[in-house]
Amino acid sequence: MMLTDKLLAAAAAEVNEATLRVLPEPGDCTPEFSPRFERKMRRVLRRGNHPAAYRVMQRAASIVLVLLIGFASILAVSPTVRAGVYGWIKETYETFVRYEFPGQSAGHDRKGEDQTLEKPVKYVMTALPERYTNIMEFEEYGNYIATYADEEGQVLHFSYGSGNTGSIYIEGKGYDVTSFTICGQQADLYMAIDASNSNGIIWGDRNSGTIFSISAYLDRDELIKLAESVRRADGYLLTGLPDGYTMVDAREDSERYISVFINEKEAQMIDFTYGFTDLYLGMDGYDIVPAMVDGKEAELYLSREPDRNNSVIWSDKETRLIFYVSAPMERDELIALAESVEPIG
Question: Whole-model pTM above 0.85?
Answer without folding.
Answer: no
